[in-house]
Amino acid sequence: MCAWLNTSESLTLLDELRALPLLAVLRPFHPLEAVSRIALLAAAGIRHVEIAWSPSPRWSHDCRELVRRFPAIRFGAASVRSIEALEAARQAGFSFAFSPVLDPALLSCAQRLGIGLVPGVFSPTEVQQALGLGCAAVKLFPATTLGPGYWGSLAAALEPLPFCIAAGGLEVAHLDAWLQGGVDALALGSTLFEPLHAAGAAPRLDPRLAGWVAAYVSAAAADHQRLH
Q1: Less Cβ crowding at N or C end of the chain, within 10 Å?
Q2: 141-160: b or e for each residue (b if 16 or more CB lie within 10 Å)?
């Protein structure tokens, strides 16, 4: 997310992630196949869901249907690496998108289209480039190869660091360690759900997820009361 983050819409998104720093990333073959999983996430209190972009001609149409069915969820596009994908995300009615790479041309296009794009970074050089491009938020990817202490170790040399969303191979059990390590939010994918052991079985959330969300929200509320 670059210059457009000065808008109230984009600032609200980061404020929401500060309140509950967790995004779900879903990769259905067709977006509407994710309905049952999104319903589970919504019931657990998750409010930010990324749908992986695909070149299917119905992708935008089906994503608009998800937006209609789940008005409490803020949807974004995942795995965006092309102008075609950005345009599809805008047509879907999404306000933000995530890329696994840092591409200045793609960031410029996103700004023209009025959609926030969070670029992927890995090295200190890429973080510095993202800062130079005006990005207020970045995606640390793939995070598990770096470890939960990596982002905090960059602070002394690169302050002020942008808002960081760690992604790539993370699990519910990793949430607290990564947040304590200095990242601002985390994006989890298939590990939000228990493995399916039979064809056609209904998806089930990791049993730790709802408890973690409830505990985080409760702790945040207690901190707010203490400060005010």
Answers
A1: C
A2: bebeebebebbeebeeeeee
Q: What is the widest separation between alpha-carbon atoms in the chain?
A: 51
The residues near 120 (Cβ < 8 Å, ≥ 6 apart) are 98, 99, 100, 101, 102, 138, 139, 140, 141
Neighbour-count burial for 55-86, b at 16+ CB within 10 Å, e otherwise: eeeebbebbbebeeebeebbbbbbbbeeeebb
> pTM of the entire structure?
0.92
Q: Say if residue 118's pLDDT is above 60.
A: yes
Element (H, E) at 86: helix 83-91
Secondary structure class of 5 (helix, strand, coil): helix
> What is the fold, at CATH topology level, of the domain defined by 3-227?
TIM Barrel (3.20.20)
- Minimal CA–CA distance to 113: which of 212, 21, 3? 3
Q: What is the pLDDT of residue 6?
A: 41
Three-state DSSP state, 116: strand
